[in-house]
Structure formats: C-alpha cells, structure tokens
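Troubleshooting log. The previous structure file for this entry was overwritten by mistake, so regenerating from the original sequence record. Sequence copied from the archived sheet and checked twice against the printout by T.R.
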Amino acid sequence: MKIIEILLNTSNSIALLPIRLGVGVVMAAHGSQKLFGWFGGYGLEATGQFFSESLGLKPGLLMAAMAGGTEFVGGLLLIVGLMTRLAGLSLAGTMAVAILTAHSSAFFASNNGMEYPLTLLLTSLTLAIGGGGAFSVDRKLAAK
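Regenerated output below.
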C-alpha cells in the first residue's frame, strides 16, 4: 500500500464529522490569533516575543510561526477533511509542545493547566487514527 493510500484511507462513517469540524474551527481560530492577531490575538510578532521570553522557545518568531501555521493550516485541513491523518498528527504534536511548555503546572484550564490542550491533543490524535470519515475530501479521493 502506498503512503498516500494510507493517509487517505478512511471509513464512510459520519461519527468523526463533528469532531473534525469542531477541532478544525478551534485550531484554525487559535492559529489565526497567533499569525494575524484575529479574534483578540496578538499577532506573530508579539506571540514570537512571548514564546521566546516566557516559554524559552527560540527563535520565538520562528516557533510562533510554526505553531500558528500548524494550527491554522491544520485546522483548515480538518474542516474540509483533506490529509486528515497528517493534520491530526501535526496538531497533536503542537498541543504536546503547548502542554510541556505553557500548561504543565496545573491540570484544570481555570489555572492555565493542560485540560484544554490535552483535550485538543486527544481529539486530534483520534482523527489521526480514524481519518476524515464521511463527507471528507480524503474519502472522495480514496474512493477513486
């Protein structure tokens, strides 16, 4: 089996659709905050400075661009269901870094803990395992 077939292979179940759409919208919005300053975000420059000075992720601008880009593009890919497994895996990795660098001191989100990024990590991992499901571009491409 070719790698592209493995990446596109998915069931025809509708069960993953709400997760794919929900996580896709959330991740694209978070990425747009980092990259463009949309939805009350700080934009790339300020996010890069925060990453460098507060989180120790250097070079901050590059790390912010990578995190924001993965969240934004990965979220958009999930919304349409294109390369869902790869997008899910990339987003899970990004959330793992977020947990380790910014949210490791507590569990609950009310204390800036890992609860929310852990939920995003697990749902992204679920999509990496399950694929895009019904109503995804992956499903259409795999059927050909």
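Helices lie at 3-8, 17-36, 43-55, 60-80, 84-102, 115-130, 137-142. Archived copy saved in two places this time.
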